[in-house]
Design goal:
Helix content is about 40%, strand content about 10%. About 30% of the residues are buried. By secondary structure, the chain is of the alpha/beta class.
Length: about 300
């Protein structure tokens, strides 16, 4: 554990300024502003975006999201799989840079975004990726941080669905820490991981209550133990026709993932290993007063 901590420290410092900015955004900006974003309607939104049916896979890294994505894109119907585009975050920041700044003295200000501007930007990007309101109107997008933007996304894509992947929280924390995730600056510190996980749990639970018919949760252990039942429920939620072919995703020659799970999706679903990270859970004890869910999990 000590050597891993040192390795993460050097990795973070190798790109220090960029990593600091990213950590600040995901730790200090979005957890405050995610529910304080509104839209202004300067024009009528392009009707094309209302015809799109995006399926957003959200959650924490190393939670089974790539396996879920592979199952969902391997059924009878060919569904366009965009991977991790970060399009939502990009469309917001590129049009409204003020979102990355905080109010004076930590003031939580309501931020108003131009919906038409964002929608038009997204439409151009999606068309370039092959999305069409006539043929490929159903597509999968797997930028996990989109749980921050659930409410915003529903205002842009009224037909959107969300698949929230999850696993035992303790296991998830150490799976993240063990894996060097270069795209996620907050993963290079156990303290930052816990902070991010805490924000995720708070936000996703609030949105599950607010939008129960829009969010379907897939637990990795349940999926590996009952793959047919859970995958069928997943397909039913997405209003897609299920077939056993969906569970044979590992046979696909065109299956590719740029994530750390690229090797895992080359084989059949393996039973969840409950003991893999049990020896490390002692390292969470000192944080149990700060995060009450540590003792509950």
């Amino acid at each position: 554990m000590e050597k891993l901590e040192i390795a993460h420290k050097y990795t973070f410092e190798a790109n220090l300024n960029t990593n600091k900015q990213a950590v600040h955004y995901w730790m200090n900006v979005m957890p405050i502003k995610y529910d304080k974003i509104n839209f202004s309607f300067t024009k009528k939104t392009n009707f094309e975006i209302n015809d799109l049916i995006p399926i957003f896979i959200i959650g924490l890294p190393r939670s089974g999201s790539t396996i879920t994505e592979s199952i969902l894109s391997s059924g009878k119907k060919k569904i366009l799989n965009l991977g991790e585009t970060a399009l939502i975050n990009w469309s917001i920041i590129s049009t409204h840079k003020e979102i990355i700044t905080e109010g004076k003295n930590g003031e939580e200000k309501l931020l108003t975004l131009d919906k038409n501007l964002i929608c038009n930007k997204l439409l151009v990007a999606l068309k370039n990726l092959g999305v069409s309101n006539t043929e490929n109107n159903i597509f999968i997008e797997k930028s996990l941080e989109n749980f921050f933007y659930i409410e915003l996304i529903l205002k842009i894509f009224p037909r959107a669905k969300f698949i929230n992947t999850s696993r035992n929280t303790h296991d998830n924390i150490f799976a993240i820490y063990q894996q060097f995730l270069s795209k996620n600056s907050w993963t290079h510190s156990l303290e930052n991981i816990l902070n991010y996980v805490n924000n995720y749990l708070k936000i996703i639970n609030s949105f599950k209550i607010k939008y129960p018919n829009k969010i379907f949760s897939v637990d990795l252990e349940e999926l590996t133990n009952n793959k047919e039942e859970i995958s069928q429920k997943l397909y039913n939620f997405c209003e897609l026709e299920w077939s056993y072919k969906a569970l044979e995703f590992y046979k696909r020659k065109d299956l590719f993932s740029s994530t750390a799970s690229n090797i895992q999706i080359r084989s059949n679903l393996q039973k969840y290993d409950k003991e893999k990270y049990s020896a490390y859970k002692i390292f969470l004890k000192k944080f149990s007063n700060q995060y009450k869910w540590i003792e509950k999990d």
